Amino acid sequence: MLRRVWKPLAATTVLIGTPSYLYYTFTKQQTFDLAVKVRGADGIPIMANRTFSLLSQNAIKDRLVENASSDSFSRPDSTVWRYATASVAANDPLEDAHADAIIARDPSDPSAPGDWLFFTVMDGHGGPHTSRLLSKTLIGAVVLELSSLIHSPDVPKSGLLEKLKLMFRTSSPKFREDPQNPERISLAIRNAFTKLDQELINAPLSVLAANLDAESIKKNLLPDLSKHPLALQTMLPAVSGSCALMAVFDTAHRHLYVACSGDSRAVAGIWEENEQGQGSWRVEVLSEDQTGRNPNELKRIQSEHPPDEAGSVIRAGRVLGGLEPSRAFGDARYKWPRDVQDVLNRAFLVGNDQPLRPPPSSFKTPPYVTATPVVTHRDFDFGSVARPLRSPASRFVVLATDGLWDKLSSEDVVALVGGHLKGLKGVVSKTALPELVPTTSGAPTVEGKDKKRNSSSGSCLRKLMSIPAPIARSYRDDTTVTVIWWEDGQEGNAKTVTFSSDNIKAKL
């Protein structure tokens, strides 16, 4: 409305002959005030008003797409895959990360042809160290575990009973257990997450052990390894932390696996039409927010610790009152025993002037946090679907860190993506969205966030995006979103990618 009013006003101004007023209008910098926490003269934090410049709409758009990328590829079965990722920082540097890989099945694989598609988003906290490491290693760890499962299926443990079973078991392949059944694939993904976190957490201990000689052990002397080339390289990814969310598409069997460790979330949108031809997007939530506010997580954590800790393991929805996600990589302060924390702190961090914070006062029986994910399996066709008008895409999956879910619901996100796929353009108000893009409920959202706290700022997008880091972190979080969608029989609408080491990492 303001834009429509401004155009005649501008024309009138020029006709009157006062171009100086027009110039002033275009160049005057808009500002806004914000209460921020600063340190007073006595060092005590206080709230004080600060004035910030309000970025232009074009500057906001540039910031939103600054870290955006997209790609598409077609396969011999006439399926076109498309995916896009964007990240917006609130921290400096950005603590989120993401990764993807397309891996063709080896021709020797009984299930070939087909591909494995991997998409991950990582939500780092306490620094970017863990999430960045995961972006380089997590997919590889899962691929290694899956490859071991597919090409070297588990052999029963040696024992008299098992040997007798083997003697009378037929060797025909059709009677052997399929190593690629969903239960075993899910277990392999879980094991890959768990093993990688164990390596990450144990890396500083391995460095310390390799630098302890017999004399030091005998005299109980701890070496100063703060200048060791692996000191910070191993400690920082262990003591910072990261949630991880992964989607694995097995195109040969048309299976989708979602592995969630933390409070990032995956949702799917499925187009459905009634007999009258009217359609809506069904919202299927593919993961649960894993925080102390999730009743399932609360029950799990309480069961893993003595009864006298039942009231303290989760306080205000957070692990020991501090960490919000109840599953995460790293976060060694919630995993290492106190004496291990003390030793590694003195050996690696004190000399670098980066001492480790002591564990919470209620820290008694670690570990309190695990990286072992909850893995779910579905047919990625999501049952019978109908294609929406003017768009061949009828299914999509969204992976996003919790910065998105702090501001939008699962229904909002499915409606926004579904509306875009159906050709909806321009600015759409939140109140008009449900009418323009109707949704229905499938698997519900299991909230793990304090929505009241996260919606308290009430700031518009333009103002939120104008707040500089690190002040912005008090009003919004780092946000990373990956959208994957696929179109059957529409390969002509997408570019054909020549597969190289950049998009197909190997064969599995």
How would you characterize this protein structure?
With 508 residues, the chain is of the alpha+beta class. 31% of the residues lie in helices and 24% in strands. It has 15 helices and 18 strands. The chain has a 7-stranded mixed beta sheet with strand order 3-4-17-15-9-10-16. Strands 5, 6, 7, 8, 13, 14 and 18 form a 7-stranded mixed beta sheet that branches. It has a two-stranded antiparallel sheet with strand order 1-2. Helix 4 (129-151) crosses helix 6, helix 4 crosses helix 8 (231-239) and helix 6 (182-210) packs across helix 8. The longest helix is centred in the middle third of the chain and has 29 residues, at 182-210. It starts with a helix and ends with a strand.
Principal-axes shape call: globular
Could you report the average pLDDT, rounded to the nearest whole number?
83
Evaluate the radius of gyration: 27 Å
Task: Provide the β-strand percentage band.
Answer: 15-25%
What count of helical segments does DSSP give?
A: 15
In order across it, which strands form the biggest sheet? 3-4-17-15-9-10-16
Secondary structure category: alpha+beta
**Unreliable sequence segments:** 1-26, 163-176, 387-392, 490-507
What about the largest sheet?
A: 7 strands, mixed
Note the gap between the termini.
Answer: 56 Å
Number of strands: 18
Helix share of residues?
25-40%
